[in-house]
Amino acid sequence: MLEEILTRCAAADEGLDAVSEDFDRLRALERNAPEALAAVETTYATLTGRVSAAEATVAGMRERYGDGAAAPVAGDVEQAKDRLAFAASALDQARPAVDANDHARAAVYIRATEGAVGQAGTLIDSVDRRSAELAEAAGKLPAALTETETDLADAGGLLEGTAAATSTADLRGRIARAEAVLTDVREAMAAGPYDPVDALRRVEEADAALDEALAGAREQEQGGRRARSLLDQAMLTARSAIGAAADYITTNRGAVGAQARTRLAEAQRRWERAGQLADGDAQGALAEAQQADALARQALGLAEQDVRGFQGPQGPGGFGGPGGSRAGAAWAGRCSAGSSSAGCSAAGAAGAAWAAASAGVRGRRRPVRGVRRRAGQFRRGRHTGAPGRWRPLLNARRTPHHSAVPDTSAVPDIQGAVP
């Protein structure tokens, strides 16, 4: 029960707040009833005189622009007359109350008269405003038509210059709509009375849609021209990067892994794709060329990393290592000192055989110092220059126990041939 009372009191308070301004106005009218009555009578007389002009304005709009143009305000004059009739009735009640010094009663009728003449004034003003808007629209319509025709010409030229692969369906649709609107408006203007506000609205909407499509197409066309200007440079840099990576991978193919080769293959594919797109889609071709350049540089970096981590055949004991190249160099030095041609030939053959045998070992020979020798297999020989290593005799045989010793069974006996 108490909650219901509180709810009703709150609702009543909100209602009083909503009409508080009206109460304040009534109190003010009560204090100044004679002055307020004189002011509202003047306003009433002015609006009564404007009713006839408003009727003439509506008739002129219908004659010049048609019933459709005057339709938004066609009933405003009649409604204004009704409001003024109510105001006249309220004034007839307010005057005797003021004369009788009954200001409280007079304030109520004066307030009702103010409301009625205020609404009547709004209705009559709307007629005048509509007439001015129609005249202004009729004056702006020719310029709007000319501007739209100019945009149509620009759109037609843009269509002719657009690449065949570029989609122009949206632009063509907007062009068709603008052309249809221009045709309809011109026919309406030539046929007789028409609504210039509606015609101007239709032309402006069609032109705005056309401008939007033109802006997008122009931006796309400018982007395409910019992409074409950059495409040649991108293709050149990508081709250079692909060539450098391909040459490096080819010359180091034994050390380069699959990841670098995959990057290079993808770079080549994208570069070829860029060439295919160059004529119809310059922006797409530019993106492909840039990707090809990036992938080729990645491939080169990965290949260089693979080569740095690869242990090739030039290590200790390989061809060119201390067990092979030094022996060949020794024989070459003796030949250059004036040895016999037979000795040099035999020495060269021996050096080549020794290098070939040593290349198969690739540095896996173990130091023989401290290993118990077997008869006929090893003897202390000349030091090779590698710490802890001793060069085996040329006539040593490869045994399972010393698998790191190269098999030199094919090396000829050249001791007698060396001077």
TrEMBL record:
<protein>
    <recommendedName>
        <fullName>TPM domain-containing protein</fullName>
    </recommendedName>
</protein>
<feature type="compositionally biased region" description="Gly residues">
    <location>
        <begin position="312"/>
        <end position="326"/>
    </location>
</feature>
<feature type="compositionally biased region" description="Basic residues">
    <location>
        <begin position="362"/>
        <end position="383"/>
    </location>
</feature>
<feature type="region of interest" description="Disordered">
    <location>
        <begin position="357"/>
        <end position="419"/>
    </location>
</feature>
<feature type="region of interest" description="Disordered">
    <location>
        <begin position="310"/>
        <end position="331"/>
    </location>
</feature>
